[in-house]
């Protein structure tokens, strides 16, 4: 069985639970730095492409089309690993990020967007 | 203006975009290790409580109630920072995690759930 065996891939996809809109959230983490880069959405086909092609692919909710990260911007994401969570309704993608992950040009989509939360301290 | 100033908090909440179900995804990252621990959901009130109390609070979609992480399990999450993403529709919470983040008892919800993706390599 190879990573690309179609039956094995479909079995893995069967373990996932997509929402009412057919999508689940995918967190992307920089495999080198550990920084959380962004969150985007995948349907089954986008997850299939991400698992089998080495390039992270999303479903764009705003454009209603598949979106292989970097095809327009050059800011490609190369898959290092993909894991699902305990409920199978979230993916964690570790990736090599070329250039900026965020369309604003910042490295991550969270840079400079701190909300000033009250810090909690364990007693 | 303090972190708890009610007007400032509401202005920050106004910058967020919640989905049709009134929720947005919150990624939780271990502030010490950088590991992504889990993803859960917040409505405006859960986000308000997370920003102002020092304890991470979600909206449980399965139980349809507020869920202050650790109240039952003891596995509390203490807020270190909260950031929104460029679209304001995802939160990244950095937290001190007491015990296991996952209800299965594993440290993160993604442990041992690798999907065997094909690895991509930049040329």
From TrEMBL, chains A, B:
<keyword id="KW-0378">Hydrolase</keyword>
<feature type="binding site">
    <location>
        <position position="86"/>
    </location>
    <ligand>
        <name>Zn(2+)</name>
    </ligand>
</feature>
<dbReference type="InterPro" id="IPR026660">
    <property type="entry name" value="PRA-CH"/>
</dbReference>
<keyword id="KW-0028">Amino-acid biosynthesis</keyword>
<protein>
    <recommendedName>
        <fullName>Phosphoribosyl-AMP cyclohydrolase</fullName>
        <ecNumber>3.5.4.19</ecNumber>
    </recommendedName>
</protein>
<feature type="binding site">
    <location>
        <position position="87"/>
    </location>
    <ligand>
        <name>Mg(2+)</name>
    </ligand>
</feature>
<feature type="domain" description="Phosphoribosyl-AMP cyclohydrolase">
    <location>
        <begin position="38"/>
        <end position="110"/>
    </location>
</feature>
<feature type="binding site">
    <location>
        <position position="85"/>
    </location>
    <ligand>
        <name>Mg(2+)</name>
    </ligand>
</feature>
<comment type="function">
    <text>Catalyzes the hydrolysis of the adenine ring of phosphoribosyl-AMP.</text>
</comment>
<dbReference type="InterPro" id="IPR002496">
    <property type="entry name" value="PRib_AMP_CycHydrolase_dom"/>
</dbReference>
<keyword id="KW-0368">Histidine biosynthesis</keyword>
<comment type="pathway">
    <text>Amino-acid biosynthesis; L-histidine biosynthesis; L-histidine from 5-phospho-alpha-D-ribose 1-diphosphate: step 3/9.</text>
</comment>
<dbReference type="InterPro" id="IPR038019">
    <property type="entry name" value="PRib_AMP_CycHydrolase_sf"/>
</dbReference>
<keyword id="KW-0460">Magnesium</keyword>
<feature type="binding site">
    <location>
        <position position="89"/>
    </location>
    <ligand>
        <name>Mg(2+)</name>
    </ligand>
</feature>
<comment type="similarity">
    <text>Belongs to the PRA-CH family.</text>
</comment>
<feature type="binding site">
    <location>
        <position position="102"/>
    </location>
    <ligand>
        <name>Zn(2+)</name>
    </ligand>
</feature>
<feature type="binding site">
    <location>
        <position position="109"/>
    </location>
    <ligand>
        <name>Zn(2+)</name>
    </ligand>
</feature>
<keyword id="KW-0862">Zinc</keyword>
<keyword id="KW-0963">Cytoplasm</keyword>
<keyword id="KW-0479">Metal-binding</keyword>
<comment type="subunit">
    <text>Homodimer.</text>
</comment>
<dbReference type="Pfam" id="PF01502">
    <property type="entry name" value="PRA-CH"/>
</dbReference>
């Amino acid at each position: 069985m190879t990573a690309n065996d179609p039956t094995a891939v479909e079995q893995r996809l069967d373990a996932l639970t997509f929402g009412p809109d057919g999508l689940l959230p995918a967190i992307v983490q920089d495999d080198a730095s550990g920084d959380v880069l962004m969150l985007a959405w995948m349907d089954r086909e986008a997850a299939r492409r991400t698992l089998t092609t080495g390039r992270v692919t999303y479903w764009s909710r705003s454009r209603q089309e598949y979106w292989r990260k970097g095809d327009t911007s050059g800011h490609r994401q190369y898959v290092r690993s993909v894991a699902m969570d305990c409920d199978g309704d979230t993916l964690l993608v570790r990736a090599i990020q070329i250039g900026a992950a965020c369309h604003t040009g910042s490295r991550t989509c969270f840079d400079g967007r701190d909300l000033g939360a009250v810090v909690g301290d364990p007693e």
